[in-house]
Protein backbone atom coordinates (compact mmCIF):
# COMPACT_ATOMS: atom_id res chain seq x y z
CA UNK A 1 0.00 0.00 0.00
CA UNK A 2 1.24 3.49 -0.90
CA UNK A 3 0.72 6.47 1.39
CA UNK A 4 0.72 10.15 0.40
CA UNK A 5 1.01 12.97 2.93
CA UNK A 6 -1.53 15.76 2.38
CA UNK A 7 0.16 19.02 3.41
CA UNK A 8 -2.44 21.64 4.26
CA UNK A 9 -2.37 25.17 5.69
CA UNK A 10 1.41 25.11 6.14
CA UNK A 11 3.97 27.80 5.23
CA UNK A 12 6.03 26.61 2.25
CA UNK A 13 9.31 26.38 4.15
CA UNK A 14 7.67 24.14 6.75
CA UNK A 15 5.85 22.14 4.08
CA UNK A 16 9.18 21.50 2.39
CA UNK A 17 10.64 20.11 5.62
CA UNK A 18 7.58 17.87 6.02
CA UNK A 19 8.12 16.59 2.49
CA UNK A 20 11.76 15.75 3.20
CA UNK A 21 10.64 13.95 6.37
CA UNK A 22 7.94 12.08 4.42
CA UNK A 23 10.52 10.73 1.98
CA UNK A 24 12.74 9.53 4.82
CA UNK A 25 9.78 7.75 6.42
CA UNK A 26 8.80 5.96 3.23
CA UNK A 27 5.78 7.90 1.98
CA UNK A 28 5.05 7.54 -1.73
CA UNK A 29 4.42 11.25 -2.22
CA UNK A 30 3.05 14.50 -0.85
CA UNK A 31 0.03 16.51 -1.92
CA UNK A 32 -0.35 20.28 -2.00
CA UNK A 33 -3.59 22.24 -1.78
CA UNK A 34 -4.81 24.94 -4.12
CA UNK A 35 -6.63 28.23 -3.81
CA UNK A 36 -5.06 31.11 -5.67
CA UNK A 37 -6.81 33.66 -3.43
CA UNK A 38 -9.12 33.63 -0.42
CA UNK A 39 -11.80 36.35 -0.21
CA UNK A 40 -11.68 37.92 3.25
CA UNK A 41 -15.26 39.16 3.17
CA UNK A 42 -16.93 36.20 1.50
CA UNK A 43 -19.69 34.16 3.07
CA UNK A 44 -19.08 31.40 0.53
CA UNK A 45 -17.88 28.35 2.46
CA UNK A 46 -16.71 24.91 1.39
CA UNK A 47 -19.82 22.70 1.67
CA UNK A 48 -17.61 19.68 2.34
CA UNK A 49 -15.98 21.14 5.45
CA UNK A 50 -17.42 20.39 8.89
CA UNK A 51 -16.82 24.02 9.87
CA UNK A 52 -16.20 27.26 7.93
CA UNK A 53 -12.76 27.37 6.32
CA UNK A 54 -10.69 30.30 7.61
CA UNK A 55 -9.93 32.64 4.74
CA UNK A 56 -6.34 33.26 5.89
CA UNK A 57 -5.29 29.64 5.44
CA UNK A 58 -1.91 29.27 3.72
CA UNK A 59 -1.98 27.85 0.18
CA UNK A 60 1.51 27.93 -1.43
CA UNK A 61 1.62 28.11 -5.20
CA UNK A 62 1.38 24.53 -6.41
CA UNK A 63 4.01 24.70 -9.12
CA UNK A 64 6.57 26.68 -7.12
CA UNK A 65 6.10 24.49 -4.04
CA UNK A 66 6.06 21.32 -6.11
CA UNK A 67 9.31 22.32 -7.83
CA UNK A 68 10.98 22.83 -4.46
CA UNK A 69 9.72 19.50 -3.12
CA UNK A 70 10.86 17.60 -6.19
CA UNK A 71 14.27 19.30 -6.15
CA UNK A 72 14.86 18.50 -2.47
CA UNK A 73 13.86 14.83 -2.80
CA UNK A 74 14.99 12.00 -5.03
CA UNK A 75 12.15 9.47 -4.91
CA UNK A 76 9.11 11.30 -3.52
CA UNK A 77 6.26 12.15 -5.88
CA UNK A 78 4.26 15.38 -5.76
CA UNK A 79 0.61 15.89 -6.57
CA UNK A 80 -1.91 18.74 -6.66
CA UNK A 81 -4.89 17.99 -4.39
CA UNK A 82 -6.69 19.52 -6.02
CA UNK A 83 -5.97 22.17 -8.63
CA UNK A 84 -9.03 24.25 -9.45
CA UNK A 85 -8.29 23.95 -13.14
CA UNK A 86 -11.15 25.81 -14.82
CA UNK A 87 -10.44 29.19 -13.20
CA UNK A 88 -6.96 29.19 -14.71
CA UNK A 89 -7.74 31.14 -17.81
CA UNK A 90 -4.76 29.96 -19.88
CA UNK A 91 -4.19 26.23 -20.45
CA UNK A 92 -0.79 26.92 -22.01
CA UNK A 93 0.61 28.19 -18.70
CA UNK A 94 -0.66 25.09 -16.91
CA UNK A 95 0.71 22.77 -19.61
CA UNK A 96 4.13 24.42 -19.53
CA UNK A 97 4.40 24.50 -15.72
CA UNK A 98 3.29 20.88 -15.37
CA UNK A 99 5.55 19.76 -18.20
CA UNK A 100 8.50 21.50 -16.56
CA UNK A 101 7.82 19.79 -13.21
CA UNK A 102 7.60 16.41 -14.92
CA UNK A 103 10.87 16.92 -16.81
CA UNK A 104 12.98 18.13 -13.89
CA UNK A 105 11.69 15.40 -11.57
CA UNK A 106 11.86 12.32 -13.75
CA UNK A 107 8.07 12.10 -14.09
CA UNK A 108 7.27 12.37 -10.36
CA UNK A 109 4.41 14.86 -10.80
CA UNK A 110 0.73 13.89 -10.63
CA UNK A 111 -1.95 16.45 -11.48
CA UNK A 112 -5.11 16.27 -9.42
CA UNK A 113 -7.83 18.58 -10.71
CA UNK A 114 -11.38 19.50 -9.82
CA UNK A 115 -14.00 22.15 -10.44
CA UNK A 116 -13.80 23.69 -6.96
CA UNK A 117 -16.45 25.04 -4.62
CA UNK A 118 -15.59 28.77 -4.34
CA UNK A 119 -17.57 30.93 -6.73
CA UNK A 120 -15.49 33.98 -5.75
CA UNK A 121 -12.42 32.49 -7.46
CA UNK A 122 -14.30 32.19 -10.72
CA UNK A 123 -15.79 35.66 -10.45
CA UNK A 124 -12.37 37.25 -9.97
CA UNK A 125 -10.91 35.21 -12.83
CA UNK A 126 -13.75 36.31 -15.08
CA UNK A 127 -14.83 32.71 -15.70
CA UNK A 128 -18.56 31.90 -15.52
CA UNK A 129 -19.29 29.63 -12.56
CA UNK A 130 -21.95 27.78 -14.53
CA UNK A 131 -19.42 26.56 -17.11
CA UNK A 132 -16.84 25.18 -14.67
CA UNK A 133 -17.50 21.48 -15.36
CA UNK A 134 -17.43 21.47 -19.20
CA UNK A 135 -14.53 23.93 -19.09
CA UNK A 136 -12.59 21.55 -16.82
CA UNK A 137 -13.24 18.66 -19.21
CA UNK A 138 -12.12 20.70 -22.22
CA UNK A 139 -8.96 21.90 -20.47
CA UNK A 140 -7.98 18.32 -19.56
CA UNK A 141 -8.34 17.41 -23.23
CA UNK A 142 -6.17 20.40 -24.25
CA UNK A 143 -3.48 19.62 -21.66
CA UNK A 144 -3.15 16.05 -22.84
CA UNK A 145 -2.81 17.21 -26.43
CA UNK A 146 -0.24 19.88 -25.54
CA UNK A 147 1.78 17.28 -23.60
CA UNK A 148 1.94 15.13 -26.74
CA UNK A 149 3.70 15.67 -30.05
CA UNK A 150 3.29 19.20 -31.43
CA UNK A 151 2.21 21.38 -32.97
CA UNK A 152 -1.35 21.22 -31.65
CA UNK A 153 -4.40 23.13 -32.81
CA UNK A 154 -7.72 23.16 -30.98
CA UNK A 155 -11.22 24.34 -31.79
CA UNK A 156 -13.55 23.88 -28.83
CA UNK A 157 -16.31 25.60 -26.93
CA UNK A 158 -14.02 27.62 -24.64
CA UNK A 159 -10.65 27.62 -26.40
CA UNK A 160 -9.73 28.05 -30.03
CA UNK A 161 -6.14 28.29 -31.21
CA UNK A 162 -4.05 27.51 -34.31
CA UNK A 163 -1.16 25.04 -34.50
CA UNK A 164 0.91 25.73 -31.38
CA UNK A 165 3.89 24.31 -29.48
CA UNK A 166 4.00 24.17 -25.67
CA UNK A 167 7.53 23.12 -24.76
CA UNK A 168 8.90 21.55 -22.66
CA UNK A 169 6.68 18.52 -22.93
CA UNK A 170 6.81 15.67 -20.44
CA UNK A 171 8.62 12.56 -21.59
CA UNK A 172 5.73 10.43 -20.29
CA UNK A 173 2.03 11.29 -19.98
CA UNK A 174 1.29 13.18 -16.76
CA UNK A 175 -1.40 11.30 -14.80
CA UNK A 176 -4.55 13.39 -14.39
CA UNK A 177 -6.62 12.46 -11.35
CA UNK A 178 -9.98 14.06 -10.62
CA UNK A 179 -11.29 15.07 -7.22
CA UNK A 180 -14.98 14.28 -7.05
CA UNK A 181 -17.76 13.60 -4.57
CA UNK A 182 -21.15 13.94 -6.27
CA UNK A 183 -22.45 10.88 -8.18
CA UNK A 184 -22.27 12.57 -11.58
CA UNK A 185 -18.73 13.76 -10.86
CA UNK A 186 -17.65 10.28 -9.77
CA UNK A 187 -18.99 8.80 -13.02
CA UNK A 188 -17.20 11.55 -14.98
CA UNK A 189 -13.97 10.70 -13.17
CA UNK A 190 -14.25 7.13 -14.38
CA UNK A 191 -14.98 8.30 -17.92
CA UNK A 192 -12.03 10.65 -18.48
CA UNK A 193 -9.46 10.57 -15.64
CA UNK A 194 -6.43 8.40 -14.95
CA UNK A 195 -7.39 8.14 -11.29
CA UNK A 196 -9.61 9.36 -8.50
CA UNK A 197 -8.22 11.78 -5.89
CA UNK A 198 -11.02 11.49 -3.40
CA UNK A 199 -11.52 13.51 -0.25
CA UNK A 200 -11.44 11.96 3.20
CA UNK A 201 -14.12 9.27 3.24
CA UNK A 202 -15.59 6.83 5.70
CA UNK A 203 -14.70 3.23 4.99
CA UNK A 204 -18.38 2.37 4.67
CA UNK A 205 -18.84 4.96 1.89
CA UNK A 206 -16.03 3.66 -0.33
CA UNK A 207 -17.86 0.75 -2.04
CA UNK A 208 -20.59 3.06 -3.32
CA UNK A 209 -18.13 5.73 -4.49
CA UNK A 210 -15.91 3.20 -6.28
CA UNK A 211 -18.97 1.60 -7.89
CA UNK A 212 -20.00 4.95 -9.41
CA UNK A 213 -16.48 5.51 -10.76
CA UNK A 214 -16.47 2.01 -12.25
CA UNK A 215 -19.87 2.71 -13.78
CA UNK A 216 -18.30 5.65 -15.60
CA UNK A 217 -15.31 3.56 -16.66
CA UNK A 218 -17.67 0.94 -18.08
CA UNK A 219 -19.71 3.57 -19.94
CA UNK A 220 -16.50 4.81 -21.57
CA UNK A 221 -15.18 1.31 -22.31
CA UNK A 222 -12.22 1.86 -19.98
CA UNK A 223 -12.51 -1.03 -17.53
CA UNK A 224 -9.37 -2.66 -18.97
CA UNK A 225 -7.30 0.52 -18.66
CA UNK A 226 -5.12 1.25 -15.59
CA UNK A 227 -6.84 3.41 -12.98
CA UNK A 228 -5.75 4.58 -9.52
CA UNK A 229 -8.07 5.08 -6.56
CA UNK A 230 -6.61 7.55 -4.06
CA UNK A 231 -8.57 8.49 -0.95
CA UNK A 232 -8.07 9.35 2.69
CA UNK A 233 -9.83 7.56 5.53
CA UNK A 234 -11.84 9.62 8.02
CA UNK A 235 -11.75 9.16 11.78
CA UNK A 236 -13.93 6.36 13.07
CA UNK A 237 -17.27 7.02 14.73
CA UNK A 238 -15.65 6.68 18.16
CA UNK A 239 -13.09 9.36 17.26
CA UNK A 240 -10.16 6.98 16.80
CA UNK A 241 -7.76 7.28 13.88
CA UNK A 242 -7.93 4.61 11.15
CA UNK A 243 -5.83 1.54 11.90
CA UNK A 244 -3.61 -0.54 9.65
CA UNK A 245 -6.41 -3.08 9.39
CA UNK A 246 -8.79 -0.42 8.10
CA UNK A 247 -6.27 0.73 5.49
CA UNK A 248 -5.98 -2.90 4.41
CA UNK A 249 -9.75 -3.16 4.15
CA UNK A 250 -9.77 -0.05 1.93
CA UNK A 251 -7.10 -1.65 -0.24
CA UNK A 252 -9.25 -4.78 -0.53
CA UNK A 253 -12.04 -2.55 -1.87
CA UNK A 254 -9.72 -1.30 -4.62
CA UNK A 255 -7.96 1.73 -3.10
CA UNK A 256 -4.45 1.83 -4.57
CA UNK A 257 -3.13 5.04 -2.98
CA UNK A 258 -3.94 6.33 0.50
CA UNK A 259 -3.65 10.05 1.23
CA UNK A 260 -3.00 10.90 4.85
CA UNK A 261 -4.49 14.11 6.18
CA UNK A 262 -4.88 16.98 5.74
CA UNK A 263 -3.03 16.94 9.04
CA UNK A 264 -5.27 19.54 10.73
CA UNK A 265 -8.31 17.45 9.81
CA UNK A 266 -6.71 14.26 11.10
CA UNK A 267 -5.81 15.97 14.38
CA UNK A 268 -9.25 17.55 14.64
CA UNK A 269 -7.87 21.06 15.17
CA UNK A 270 -8.19 24.27 13.20
CA UNK A 271 -4.50 25.20 13.17
CA UNK A 272 -1.84 22.72 14.27
CA UNK A 273 1.72 23.76 15.09
CA UNK A 274 4.69 22.65 13.01
CA UNK A 275 5.84 20.41 15.86
CA UNK A 276 2.38 18.82 16.03
CA UNK A 277 2.47 18.20 12.28
CA UNK A 278 5.87 16.51 12.48
CA UNK A 279 4.75 14.38 15.41
CA UNK A 280 1.61 13.31 13.54
CA UNK A 281 3.63 12.27 10.47
CA UNK A 282 6.14 10.31 12.54
CA UNK A 283 3.38 8.68 14.60
CA UNK A 284 1.50 7.64 11.47
CA UNK A 285 4.61 6.07 9.97
CA UNK A 286 5.26 4.14 13.16
CA UNK A 287 1.62 3.18 13.81
CA UNK A 288 0.56 2.22 10.27
CA UNK A 289 3.39 2.14 7.74
CA UNK A 290 5.80 0.04 9.81
Number of strands: 10
Order of helices and strands: EHEHEHEHHEEEHEHEHEHH
List low-confidence stretches: none
**Alpha carbon gap, first and last residue:** 11 Å
Structural class computed from helices and strand pairing: alpha/beta
Calculate Rg over CA atoms: 18 Å
Helix content: 40-55%
Distinct helical segment count: 10
Describe the biggest sheet? 8 strands, parallel, barrel
Q: What is the global morphology?
A: globular
Mean pLDDT: 92
Placed side by side, the strands forming the largest sheet appear as 1-2-3-4-7-8-9-10
Strand content: 15-25%
Write the layout of secondary structure elements.
Layout: E1 2-7, H1 12-25, E2 29-32, H2 62-72, E3 77-84, H3 91-105, E4 109-114, H4 119-125, H5 132-146, E5 152-155, E6 160-164, E7 176-178, H6 183-192, E8 195-201, H7 206-219, E9 228-233, H8 244-253, E10 257-260, H9 263-267, H10 274-289
Parallel strand pairs: 1-2, 1-10, 2-3, 3-4, 4-7, 7-8, 8-9, 9-10
Antiparallel strand pairs: 5-6
Helix pairs in contact: 1-2, 1-10, 2-3, 3-5, 6-7
Key words describing this protein structure:
290 residues; alpha/beta; two-stranded antiparallel sheet; 10 helices; 18% strand
Task: Explain what the structure shows.
- The chain has helices spanning 12-25, 62-72, 91-105, 119-125, 132-146, 183-192, 206-219, 244-253, 263-267, 274-289, and strands spanning 2-7, 29-32, 77-84, 109-114, 152-155, 160-164, 176-178, 195-201, 228-233, 257-260.
- 40% of the residues lie in helices and 18% in strands.
- It has an 8-stranded parallel barrel with strand order 1-2-3-4-7-8-9-10, surrounded by 7 helices. Strands 5-6 form a two-stranded antiparallel ribbon.
- The chain has 10 helices and 10 strands.
- The longest helix has 16 residues, at 274-289.
- It has 290 residues and is of the alpha/beta class.
- It is globular and about 55 Å long.
